[in-house]
Design a protein that fits this description.
- It holds the Pfam family MutS_IV.
- Belongs to the DNA mismatch repair MutS family.
- This protein is involved in the repair of mismatches in DNA. It is possible that it carries out the mismatch recognition step. This protein has a weak ATPase activity.
- The chain is of the alpha/beta class and 876 residues long.
- The protein folds into five domains: 100 residues, MutS, DNA mismatch repair protein, domain I (3-Layer(aba) Sandwich); 132 residues, MutS, connector domain (Nucleotidyltransferase, domain 5); 136 residues, MutS, DNA mismatch repair protein, Chain A, domain 3 (Orthogonal Bundle); 99 residues, Orthogonal Bundle (MutS, DNA mismatch repair protein, Chain A, domain 3), CATH 1.10.1420; 238 residues, Rossmann fold (3-Layer(aba) Sandwich).
- The protein is built from 30 helices and 27 strands.
- Strands 13-23-24-25-21-26-27 form a seven-stranded mixed beta sheet, sandwiched between helices. A six-stranded mixed beta sheet has the order 3-4-2-1-5-6, with helices on both faces.
- Helix 13 crosses helix 14 and helix 25 runs antiparallel to helix 26.
- The longest helix has 33 residues.
- Bound molecules: adenosine-5'-triphosphate.
- Adenosine-5'-triphosphate (ATP) binds next to helix 22.
C-alpha cells in the first residue's frame, strides 16, 4: 500500500501537484459555483470556471502547458475582487471565494486554503451587487403534493428581513412577483413543477429533497432564534412556510454565512391584511416595474424618499396595499399632517437626507463586515435622531409622533464612536489611522514615537556627520537590514571603531550602531503596536454597536416609515393630488381622476383630460366603455385601479376628489402580454388570465377587462366577451365592480337585459375626415371604431386606407354588422341566475358546470386549458 504523506493525505497521483489536489478537493465541495482560488496576489479560476469567468469578465483566458486540453486558466489581482465579483454575480453565477487561511511566510508546506464566502445572486452583502433602493431577496419554495399547497420564504441578508407564508400556487406566484427575489431555492424533485409555474425568469438553485422536511427545518429555526417553538412569530401553524424558511437558514450555512445575528425575527406575510393583486395586475399596472422598454413604472414617480430604507419600504407598501381602514387612515393623516406644516416637512427632509443606509450598516455590524468608515456613517445616521424626535414630538399627526417617539438616539454608542473614531477613518482595518488622538494615551505615545522617530534619525545623521566629518553619511532603511548608516568608500577611513559593518557595496559600506538598532526597534514595533491597538479598539466598538442591534433596526424602520410618508406628501404637493375619503361601503366615486404616470409624460402644451368614474354594487356595477382606438380607454381603466390602489397604500391621489369603498382584490386583464416568448398564444394568455379572475372574484373586487376576446375571431371574441360580462353581472355571490373596455359595439346591447351594466364611451369629434380625441368619458355607447382613421394617422398608404373605407361601406350597406346586433338581441337570454333558483338546467350545461366545478385552473398547463376549453365548447 502506498504510504500516506505526513498530513494524512494519499500520495500525489500522476500529474497532480499539492496545489492542484488542494484545488480539486475544495472545488468538489462547491459544485455549481465558480471557485476563485487565491494564489499569492491573484484570484485564479481553472477549467470550465476559467472559460466562464473570462467570458463574463473579459479577462484573458490562458491554457497551461501541461498537455491537458482542459487546463484553462484565468485570473485577476486580488485587490480587484470588488470590481469583478459583482459582475459574476449579476451574470447569475454563484461564486465561492477561496482564501489563504494562513500567512504564506509562516506556512509549513502548502498554504492552508478554504472558502470564506459563497456569494450568490440572492445572498450578498456586497455594495456593488446590491441596489440600495431595493431589497435583495433569496426566496425558497416548498411544495406539498397531496393538496398542491406551496410554502414560501424570503430573506434579505443585507437587511436581516425574513418573511414566510404558505398557500395555493396563485398566492405564492403573486408573492414571488411582488418581491422579485434575486434567487429562488426549490427542491430538486419538483423541478418540472417549478419550471412550469415560476419559469426561468429568476436565478434558481435546486436543493436536495431531504432538506425540505419539517423535521430538519423546524429545529434550524428554533436554534437560530433561540426559542422553544415558533408561536411567538405567528408561523407555528404554517408547516410549509416553516420548511421554506428553514431551507434558507440551511442555505446560509452552506454559503458560509455564519454571523447572522441581525436576522432577529421572522414575519408571517399576512394574506388578509393586504389587497390581493394577482401577478398579472402587478405587471399590467406597472406598479414597480415596467414591461415595456423605456416604460416608467409608478414607483419611479412615487419615490421621493431620502433614504435607501425608505425606498425599500415604499416598494413594499406599493405591492402590499392595505385593506384595513384604520391603518390606511393613519398613514393618510401622516401625509396630511406633513402637508399642513410645510416648513416642518422641509426640515424633516433635510434631517433624513444624511442618514444613509442605517439598516444595512447595522446588518454589516452583525455580520462582522463593517469597516471603520462605515461605522462613522452609522454614528452620523444616529446623530440625526435627536433632532427628528424633537421636530416631531409635538406634531399634530399621531403616526409621526408615534414613530418619532420610538426612535432611540443610542447616545452612549454615539459618544463612544465619536470619541474614538476619526471622522476620516479609512475603509481598511489593519493600517491604522482609525482612532482619534487623545482617545488612549498609550496610543498617542506610540504615534509620537513613530513620527518623532523619523525626526530623531535625521538629527542623528546630522550629529554624526559633524562628529565624524563624513559628509557623505546617510541614514537609510531596507527590509533586510533595517536602519543602517551608509558611507561612501572615499570616507571609509573616518568610520569610528564602534560601528559594526553589515554590508559592502561597490562604492560604499553599510554599518549599524547600538543606538540605531535600539531606535529602530522602537519605531517598528510602535507602528505594529499602533495597528494592533487600533484594530482592537475598533473591534470593541463593533462589539458594542452589536448590543444596539434591535434598537437600531427599529430606528431604521421608523426612519423608513417617516421617509415614505414624506415621499407621499412630496409627490402629492408636486402633482396636486388630493386626500381620498375611504370607507367600507360599496361605491367608488372618482372626480376628475388622472393617470399619474401618463399625465407626467404628455408632450409640452398637452394637458391630461381628467375623467369621472362611478361604480357601485347596486346601480352601476359594470361600465362598458367603447370608443375608437387611441381614445384613452386603457388609460382610463388603469388610472381607476391606480387611484384605488394609491389610496389604499395611504397615498393621496390624482383627482379633484375621491371617495373609495375599500377594495379587497384588484384584477386586471389589460393590454398586451409578454408571455408570448413562452410559446403561448395571445388568446391563450388572455383566457388564462381571465379564468384566474373569474375563479377568484369577491364582492369587493375591482376588475379591469381590456378588450377581452380581441385575440380570436370576431364571433368567438364577441361571444366570450358577452358571456364574461353576463357572468360578472349574474354571479350568485358577488358583484365585482368592473370596467370593461371593448371594441365590440355589439356589447352595448347588454344594458337592455342587465340593469347594473351601463354604457359609456370615450368621446371624439369628427372634423372633416379627421378625428379629434376629446378623451372625455360620456354616458352612452358609440357607433364607430374609427380604426381606419387611426390607421391613416399611423401612415398607412393612402390607397390602402381608401380601399378599407370602401370595404367598410359595403359591409355596412349590406347590414352585415347590424345583423349581428339584431341576432344578439334575439338570442335566448342567459337563464343561469334563474336556474340557481330552481328551474331545470339543460343536460349539456350541467355537464359543463360539473367540469368547471372540478377544475383547478391553477394547476392546468396552458395546453390542458386549451383542450378543456375546446371540450367545453363542444358540450355547449
Ligand atoms: N385622458 C387623457 N388625456 C390626455 N391624453 C390621453 C388621455 N388618455 C389617453 N391619452 C393618450 O392617448 C394614448 C392612447 O390611450 P389608450 O392607450 O388609453 O387608448 P385606447 O382607447 O385604449 O386605444 P386602443 O383601443 O387602440 O388600445 C395614451 O398613450 C395617452 O398618451
Amino acid at each position: 500500500m502506498a504510504k500516506k504523506t505526513p498530513d494524512g493525505q494519499e500520495p500525489l497521483k500522476k500529474g497532480e501537484t499539492p496545489l492542484s489536489r488542494q484545488f480539486n478537493q475544495i472545488k468538489a465541495k462547491y459544485p455549481g459555483a465558480i471557485l476563485l482560488f487565491r494564489v499569492g496576489d491573484f484570484y485564479e479560476t481553472f477549467g470550465e470556471d476559467a472559460v466562464k469567468a473570462s467570458k463574463i469578465l473579459g479577462i484573458t483566458l490562458t491554457r497551461r502547458n501541461n498537455g491537458n486540453a482542459d487546463d484553462h486558466l484565468a485570473g485577476f489581482p486580488h485587490h480587484s475582487l470588488d470590481t469583478y465579483l459583482p459582475k459574476l454575480v449579476r451574470a447569475g453565477q454563484r461564486v465561492a471565494i477561496c482564501d489563504q487561511l494562513e500567512n504564506p511566510a509562516e506556512a509549513k508546506g502548502i498554504v492552508k486554503r478554504g472558502v470564506t464566502e459563497l456569494v450568490t445572486p440572492g445572498v450578498s452583502f456586497n455594495d456593488q451587487v446590491l441596489d440600495n433602493k431595493r431589497n435583495n431577496y433569496v426566496a425558497s419554495i416548498s411544495y406539498q403534493e397531496k393538496d398542491a399547497q406551496f410554502g414560501v420564504a424570503f430573506l434579505d441578508i443585507s437587511t436581516g428581513e425574513f418573511m414566510c407564508s404558505q398557500g395555493p400556487l396563485a398566492y405564492v406566484q403573486k408573492l414571488i412577483q411582488s418581491f422579485m427575489p434575486s434567487e429562488i431555492l426549490f427542491p430538486k424533485k419538483y423541478r418540472s413543477i417549478y419550471q412550469e409555474h415560476f419559469g426561468d425568469q429568476y436565478h434558481s438553485f435546486s436543493m436536495e429533497e431531504w432538506i425540505f422536511s419539517y423535521e430538519f427545518t423546524y429545529p434550524l429555526l428554533t436554534e437560530h432564534f433561540k426559542t422553544k417553538n415558533l408561536k411567538g412569530f405567528g408561523i407555528e401553524t404554517m408547516p410549509l412556510g416553516i420548511i421554506a424558511a428553514g431551507v434558507i437558514l440551511h442555505y446560509l450555512a452552506e454559503t458560509e454565512h455564519k454571523q447572522v445575528g441581525h436576522i432577529a425575527t421572522i414575519q408571517r406575510i399576512e394574506e388578509d391584511k393586504f389587497v390581493w393583486l394577482d401577478r398579472f395586475t402587478i405587471r399590467n399596472l406597472e406598479l414597480v416595474y415596467s414591461v415595456q422598454e423605456g416604460g416608467v413604472p409608478l414607483i419611479d414617480l412615487m419615490d421621493q424618499t431620502m433614504t435607501p430604507m425608505g425606498a425599500r419600504l415604499l416598494r413594499k407598501w406599493m405591492v402590499l396595499p392595505l385593506k384595513e381602514l384604520a391603518a390606511i387612515q393613519e398613514r393618510q393623516a401622516g401625509v396630511a399632517g406633513l402637508l399642513e406644516l410645510d416648513e416642518t416637512m422641509d426640515v424633516l427632509i433635510s434631517l433624513l437626507k444624511p442618514i444613509g443606509d442605517l439598516e444595512r450598516l447595522i446588518s454589516k455590524v452583525a455580520a462582522g463586515r463593517i469597516n471603520p468608515r462605515e461605522l462613522v456613517q452609522l454614528k452620523r445616521a444616529l446623530q440625526q435622531v435627536p433632532a427628528i424626535k424633537e421636530l416631531l414630538a409635538t406634531h399634530p399627526a399621531p403616526i409621526l409622533q408615534k414613530w418619532a417617539d420610538q426612535l432611540n438616539p443610542c447616545l452612549h454608542l454615539v459618544q463612544k464612536i465619536e470619541s474614538a473614531l476619526r471622522d476620516d477613518a479609512p475603509m481598511l482595518v489593519h493600517q491604522g489611522g482609525i482612532i482619534k488622538t487623545g482617545y488612549l494615551p498609550e496610543l498617542d505615545e506610540l504615534h509620537q514615537l513613530s513620527t518623532n522617530g523619523k525626526d530623531y534619525l535625521a538629527a542623528m545623521q546630522k550629529r554624526e556627520i559633524e562628529r565624524t566629518g563624513i559628509t557623505s553619511l546617510k541614514v537609510a532603511y531596507n527590509k533586510v537590514f533595517g536602519y543602517y548608516l551608509e558611507v561612501t568608500n572615499a570616507h571609509k577611513d573616518r568610520v569610528p571603531p564602534e560601528w559594526i559593518r553589515k554590508q559592502t557595496l561597490v562604492n560604499a559600506e553599510r554599518y549599524i550602531t547600538e543606538e540605531l538598532k535600539g531606535y529602530e526597534e522602537k519605531i517598528l514595533s510602535a507602528e505594529d503596536k499602533i495597528s494592533t491597538i487600533e484594530f482592537g479598539i475598533f473591534q470593541e466598538l463593533v462589539r458594542e454597536s452589536l448590543e444596539y442591534l434591535e434598537l437600531i433596526q427599529l430606528n431604521a424602520l421608523g426612519i423608513a416609515t417617516l421617509d415614505v410618508l414624506t415621499s407621499f406628501a412630496q409627490v402629492a404637493k408636486r402633482n396636486q393630488y388630493v386626500q381620498p375619503t375611504l370607507h367600507t361601503g360599496d361605491s367608488i366615486q372618482i372626480e376628475a381622476g388622472r393617470h399619474p404616470v401618463i399625465e407626467q409624460q404628455l408632450p409640452l402644451g398637452e394637458v391630461y383630460v381628467p375623467n369621472d368614474v362611478y361604480l357601485d354594487n347596486e346601480t352601476q356595477q359594470i361600465i362598458m366603455i367603447t370608443g375608437p382606438n387611441m381614445a384613452g380607454k386603457s388609460a382610463l381603466l388603469r388610472q381607476t385601479a391606480l387611484i384605488v390602489l394609491m389610496a389604499q397604500m395611504g397615498s393621496f391621489v390624482p383627482a379633484t376628489s375621491a371617495s373609495i369603498g375599500l377594495v379587497d382584490k384588484v384584477f386586471t386583464r389589460v393590454g398586451a402580454s409578454d408571455n408570448l416568448s413562452k410559446g403561448e398564444s395571445t388568446f391563450m394568455v388572455e383566457m388564462t388570465e381571465t379564468a384566474a379572475i373569474l375563479n377568484n372574484l369577491s364582492n369587493n373586487s375591482l376588475v379591469l377587462l381590456d378588450e377581452i376576446g380581441r385575440g380570436t375571431s370576431t364571433y368567438d371574441g364577441v361571444s366570450m366577451a358577452w358571456a364574461i360580462a353576463e357572468h360578472l353581472h349574474n354571479h350568485s355571490k358577488c358583484r365585482a365592480k368592473t370596467l370593461f373596455a371593448t371594441h365590440y359595439h355589439e356589447l352595448n346591447e347588454l344594458t337592455e337585459d342587465f340593469p347594473r351594466i351601463k354604457n359609456f364611451h370615450v368621446s371624439v369629434k369628427e372634423v372633416g375626415n379627421k378625428i379629434i380625441f376629446l378623451r372625455k368619458l360620456v354616458p352612452g355607447g358609440s357607433e364607430h371604431s374609427f380604426g381606419i382613421h387611426v390607421a391613416q394617422m399611423a401612415g398607412m398608404p393612402t390607397s390602402l386606407v381608401l380601399r378599407a373605407h370602401e370595404i367598410l361601406q359595403n359591409l355596412e350597406k349590406d347590414h352585415v354588422l347590424e345583423d349581428n346586433v339584431e341576432k344578439l338581441k334575439d338570442m335566448p337570454k342567459n337563464n343561469y341566475q334563474l336556474n340557481l333558483f330552481g328551474a331545470e338546467i339543460p343536460e349539456g350545461l350541467k355537464k359543463i358546470e360539473e367540469q368547471l366545478g372540478s377544475l383547478d385552473v391553477n394547476t392546468l398547463s396552458p395546453i390542458e386549458a386549451l383542450l378543456k376549453l375546446n371540450e367545453l365548447k363542444r358540450l355547449l
